[in-house]
Amino acid sequence: MSIADRLAELKITLPPAPKPVAAYIPAVRTGSLVFISGQLPLKDGELLASGPVPSRVSLEEAQAAARQCVLNALAVLAAQVGDDLDRVEQIVRLGVFVCCEAGFTDQPKVGNGASELLQSIFGEKGRHARAAVGSIALPLGATVEVEMIAEVS
Amino acid sequence: MSIADRLAELKITLPPAPKPVAAYIPAVRTGSLVFISGQLPLKDGELLASGPVPSRVSLEEAQAAARQCVLNALAVLAAQVGDDLDRVEQIVRLGVFVCCEAGFTDQPKVGNGASELLQSIFGEKGRHARAAVGSIALPLGATVEVEMIAEVS
Amino acid sequence: MSIADRLAELKITLPPAPKPVAAYIPAVRTGSLVFISGQLPLKDGELLASGPVPSRVSLEEAQAAARQCVLNALAVLAAQVGDDLDRVEQIVRLGVFVCCEAGFTDQPKVGNGASELLQSIFGEKGRHARAAVGSIALPLGATVEVEMIAEVS
């Protein structure tokens, strides 16, 4: 099944590729690797979640935010491969930054909102290495930021 | 001297490769690069150190934790190269995240617990680029998380 | 115009390549990629800015610090390419860590101090992917740390 069909089956429509909020570009390709800039949980121009977990944002909301970051990253990635996500050979690495308070320990569960979506879309090719860490504050006040490296053909 | 002999000389036994604590995989190889997921200072299923430096964990304890993260990363790396660490051409980069309080400035010394071990095992091939930063909170409450990129043959 | 000429036009003199403050090396090359260690805003051995934004350091000061981190990274990169920065094919990725207090949201603007300098020096080849995040504390008390990946020939 093509990735486009798989997205349709999952009832996922990728958003328009988000513009960076500053003086850099959404992605750079070098060889077969695409480095995608840190994505925020923006949807239709609004943050899905802002402020730290757990005082301001629940674990479930943070997971949904991480998922949205990945949708935005995939929109960027699609633009790099002529909108043909079947050219994705492997999702290589995710960096997941979670805005949280001291003592919060569930960054991996937040990151799973990102990781599980990738696996459901790409199967084996969606299984990636990952680092998930806490951050005192993220751009625009976002609860989550996700950056990605993908191998493409 | 082979890396296996060098490990024996250093009286280092690699642990079993740790399982990730969430929906991702321990390592992804792309070309000659292996991206290894962020490793925690788990030993026999327990964290060697948890909570922030310096109020809860000393610099020395954090350094030992960073060293344990690297042992876990090497166990993952060994599994990627058929248990033959002589196939490691170069340790390329470490990302070191140190759970700490505001005002703590010795992240590089914590990171040295990781870096010096790599150099003692791999010699020139163990000398790597590194970014060491503070983090307000890490997965499971760990004091240190270390991710790694290695070049292999 | 060569990059050397462009630097002269911008009246930029690269500093001597900074030594790492710990047991690692300034850069590792693997294939066509150079991974450069996290750089601090050191100038003539002193930090341009220390402590968190915004209570101790202004946005403008943090931007200048980010710019200095890039100058140091370019000094390291120059040493990797025989002092011929025309061999830089692409700046691939920046990681920008900003020491800040909870609630600070302008990490992208701080990062622009780094990104805009690269674009002014390298033009299209200076346009990169980026992740900018907040950090509770950085090495030596620095306000900013920047790591870089570059593609070289």
Describe the structure in your own words.
The structure is a homotrimer of 153-residue chains. Chain A is of the alpha+beta class. The first copy, chain A, has a single domain, classed as RutC-like (60s Ribosomal Protein L30, Chain: A, 2-Layer Sandwich), CATH 3.30.1330.40. Helices cover 29% and strands 28% of the residues of chain A. Chain A is built from three helices and seven strands. In chain A, the strands form two sheets. Chain A has a five-stranded mixed β-sheet with strand order 1-2-7-5-6. In chain A, strand 1 (27-30) and strand 2 (33-39) form a beta hairpin. In chain A, helix 2 crosses helix 3 (107-122). Chain A is globular and about 40 Å long. In chain A, 57% of the residues are buried. Chains in contact: A-B, A-C, B-C. The A-B interface holds A 31-33, 90-94, 100-109, 111-112, 115-116, 119, 127-136, 149, 151 and B 20-28, 30-31, 35-38, 52, 95, 97, 99, 135-141, 145, 147.
Explain briefly what this protein structure is.
Three copies of one chain form a homotrimer. The first copy, chain A, is α+β, with helices and mostly antiparallel strands.
Q: What oligomeric state best describes the polypeptide chains here?
A: homotrimer
Helix content of chain A: 25-40%
Q: Give the biggest beta sheet of chain A.
A: 5 strands, mixed
Percentage of residues in strands of chain A: 25-35%
Report the total helices of chain A: 3
Keywords summarizing the entry:
homotrimer, 153 residues, alpha+beta, 60s Ribosomal Protein L30, Chain: A, 5-stranded mixed sheet, two-stranded antiparallel sheet, 3 helices, 7 strands, 29% helix, 28% strand, globular
